[in-house]
Design brief:
Length: 273
């Protein structure tokens, strides 16, 4: 372990801990703290729900279809594959390693799992705020690299370090939803613009948008007033941004259960099935 006195600028920020509770380090300079009770009340009482989620399940099935993910089992173990299972869960296979974003079974000594900084907070019960550490993850093998940001706000300094030290990544899973209203969400959840910035900073060759389109998370997406179905705004806004960023590798959304496959053809980036 590197001591703080010899720490270099490329070292990742370490969380603060006081009386058994974690806190974001000073390098997360856009962190404004956990939203307080009055902010929560203001959000719930005075912000209009613009999500426009249809009551008709058939309509939802049409615009947000679900694929049978069991066909993942037929994939060769030689390549790299991923399937979005909804919300923030991604099923990933890299060579002989398979697991969900936060649960990998690894027996190979050539695999390194990194616990990485993310800007957020944690709470599961009434009295355990920040007693468990939030984080991102990277899984690195000799031939493949996967990065999962975790729930996070934006901090260009730390994401640039991740890209410089561990990138480029073959695949990254980056949140794109639950970002509005910004006065309430910005410190803890990135929006699609910030997600694209992270995609660039970590040097991802292909990124998948997560943390959206699964259930109503209380976030009232409404940045682009031209998008009438606001529950689809994370996806549509990401598409619009990427259409104007032809300098970047692909950053897409998958349908639930849809499989991304790293292409073996040098003239083709990826395939979807």
């Amino acid at each position: 372990m590197t001591s703080s006195s010899s720490r270099s600028p490329s070292d990742f920020a370490k969380p603060l801990r006081d009386n058994g509770r974690f806190a974001n380090p000073p390098s997360f300079d856009k962190w404004t703290g956990v939203p307080g009770f009055w902010n929560l009340l203001k959000w719930r009482l005075f912000e209009k729900d613009n999500s426009n989620i249809p009551d008709d399940n058939a309509e939802l099935d049409e615009v947000l279809p679900v694929h049978n993910v069991t066909k993942f089992e037929s994939k060769s173990k030689a390549g790299m594959f991923a399937a979005w299972l909804g919300h923030a869960t991604v099923l990933v296979q890299m060579e002989d390693i398979r697991g969900e974003h936060d649960s990998f079974k690894v027996d190979d000594k050539n695999v390194t799992v990194w616990c990485l900084p993310s800007q957020h907070w944690g709470q599961r019960g009434a009295f355990d705020r920040n007693k468990r550490l939030w984080s991102g993850w990277a899984v690195v093998t000799p031939n493949r690299r996967f990065y999962y940001t975790g729930d996070t706000g934006y901090c260009d300094r730390e994401f640039k370090k991740i890209g410089s030290r561990l990138g480029p990544f073959d695949l990254a899973a980056i949140p794109i939803g639950a970002y509005s209203p910004r006065w309430f969400m910005k410190s803890q959840h990135i929006d699609p613009h910030e997600a694209v910035a992270i995609h660039d900073l970590v040097r991802s060759k292909f990124s998948v948008g997560i943390h959206w389109g699964t259930y109503h998370m209380g976030s009232y997406e409404v940045i682009d007033m031209s998008i009438l179905q606001y529950y689809l705004e994370p996806k549509e806004l990401l598409n619009d941004i990427m259409q104007n960023r032809t300098d970047l590798p692909p950053f897409v959304t998958l349908e639930m259960g849809q499989i991304w496959e790293e292409s073996q053809d040098s003239n083709e980036d990826t395939t979807l099935s």
